[in-house]
Fold each of these.
Amino acid sequence: MDAIRTLKQIESENRLATPEEQKVLSKFVGWGGLSQAFDEGNAGWSKEYAELKELLSDEEYSAARATVNNAFYTSPEIAMCMNSALVQFGFRGGNVLEPS
């Protein structure tokens, strides 16, 4: 939830993320970890459910909810192709922030 709040703030201020904000954003691992927050009837996740409904537009909420079961998956073929392209562009290793 921290990453979502952070992203929304950055977007509302129309600016780039600070290094500290980048650290927060990098910890977002996808909607799968928040799948229970999309269940309106789950009392244990009611706070997160309400926050998601407040932070996200109806369109964003629907898109996020639709991906909770598979948003985390990238096929090995795609990952290998992306790695090959990065190497061809001169990337030789280091930290990479993968958007979820």
Amino acid sequence: MAAPDPYPPRYKEWDGKGAGIDQEAYPVLRDRLVAQAGVSTGAVEARVNA
């Protein structure tokens, strides 16, 4: 069974598009995603920067 996608649908529009992310808000969004997904910041960074 595939692992569930840790990203809520409202964040998907930003995948691969840095323009969608306010640079000041990004750390807050990242921390929120980390908390929701229960994964390390490094894993989120890798996904966001992929």
Amino acid sequence: YRIDHYLGKETVQNILVFRFGNGIFEPIWNRNYVDHVQITVSESLGV
């Protein structure tokens, strides 16, 4: 998915809270199920 960096800012900042604070996702969000997470910052002015 591609989104504007400002719209995704809060989600990226809270991704660990979401993983460990959610009993449904915590057991499956590990190296056995997630291949990789890619966050690309391609801003010409800086973030």
Amino acid sequence: MSDFHYDELLPQLRDYYDRDAQRRAEMTHSAWKVVARAALLTRIQAEGKCTLLEIGAGPGRDALFFHENGLDVLCTDLSPAMVAVCQANGLTAHVKDFASLDFADSAFDVIYAMNCLLHVPNEALPAILANIRRMLVPGGLFYFGTYGGQNEESLFSGGPIPGSRYFVFRTDEQLKALVSPYFDLVDFTVMQEDQAQNHHVRFQSTVWRRAD
């Protein structure tokens, strides 16, 4: 049982990302993230999917990429400052954390979560995954990209700005066990440390499908 509770973590996460919004808006993606994103776009286009929700969108770099490639994109983030950056870039964006996503049933062809659900303790993740499934059309795709490869959770500091954030890292087996009750696995690609540029964890780039 985790000592961390999602609702209690939200104020700290929101404050951190509000303060980090401008710096992140000026960043560019690492090459390996660009590769993962492009591979997903190829799959989306091959399947003729049109609508995409990005949760935990941050400054909206990925959302803007999908928008510029013809998708109808909606963004959410828990940080008002991040949402403001998305809106300044012409994206439709709303302030919502993962537990407050209240869009209609079967509203999206694709739901995209890049490096954001690692802020959700394992005990809180099933309800969020069930809600993501609800919002996807039958046959819709769920992209879940996250750092992992080991079983660890903690408050981590030492980032680019002062403050600490909660992270949870999951082994490949843990991640599959958590997500598979809600989605069918389409692709599970692991990027090693040299690709993900992280000495402690690797990147799990996963694609799932709502089966019915």
